[in-house]
């Protein structure tokens, strides 16, 4: 895979590769999004992106529980791989399309992918928070996605370690630290919203991701 990506980078630098414009938004008329994905990443990548687009199209009017499960299952079926192996760097936060096209990522890539998929399905951003936790089962830092629309309701956890969507009280293996979305940053609480600390720009990688999420995808 590394040789393949190196060749793609060389083609891009020499002007021989097609321009790839892939975002969360539906492609503009006349732009062959799937063809561009295939040219950069191959036929399997094209099929994965097509499957994701179909997921968005088919689930927009579905109940919230179905939207949550569809998003959770889609990203949990991708390959888990640490950033150093997948992106050749210690810590990289991928956009959903980058994760889908390359068929993998780590816990934050999956949580980010689920977040943007659900917002694209019409779930308000204030209902979704990406949460940094300590996962006691593996004794490591970890990220999950919380769904909680009302402060009095218990959060539901979308995770790749435990693939069933469970309420926070059932996840004693997770110790929350902080959570964030496009609207803010919070000191995390196990069952409630928590105390807002500031905006999402306090996390530099998250801010960089928000700037990249609807820009052209690069190999």
In short:
The protein has 219 residues and is α+β, with helices and mostly antiparallel strands. Helix content is 38%, strand content 19%.
Tally of strands:
9
Helical segment count: 8
Order of neighbouring strands in the sheet with most strands? 6-5-4-3-7-8-9
Distance between the termini: 11 Å
What is the 3D form? globular
Question: What percentage of the residues does DSSP assign to strands (E)?
Answer: 15-25%
Overall structural class, as computed from helix and strand content, comes to: alpha+beta
N-to-C SSE string, H for helix and E for strand: HHHHEHHEHEEEEEEEH
Oligomer description: single chain
- Taking all Cα atoms into account, the compactness measure Rg is 17 Å
Helix content: 25-40%
- How would a crystallographer describe the biggest sheet? 7 strands, antiparallel
Which ranges are low-confidence, i.e. pLDDT below 50, for 5 or more consecutive residues? 1-19
Task: From the structure above, extract its key features.
219 residues, alpha+beta, seven-stranded antiparallel sheet
Summarize the topology.
Layout: H1 2-13, H2 33-41, H3 43-59, H4 64-76, E1 79-80, H5 83-86, H6 96-101, E2 104-105, H7 107-120, E3 128-135, E4 140-147, E5 156-158, E6 166-167, E7 174-181, E8 184-187, E9 195-198, H8 204-212
Parallel strand pairs: 1-2
Antiparallel strand pairs: 3-4, 3-7, 4-5, 5-6, 7-8, 8-9
Helix pairs in contact: 2-3, 4-7
Give structural notes.
It is a single chain. This protein is α+β, with helices and mostly antiparallel strands and 219 residues long. Helix content is 38%, strand content 19%. The protein has helices at 2-13, 33-41, 43-59, 64-76, 83-86, 96-101, 107-120, 204-212, and strands at residues 79-80, 104-105, 128-135, 140-147, 156-158, 166-167, 174-181, 184-187, 195-198. The strands form two sheets. It has a seven-stranded antiparallel β-sheet with strand order 6-5-4-3-7-8-9, covered by helices on one side. The chain is globular. 35% of the residues are buried.
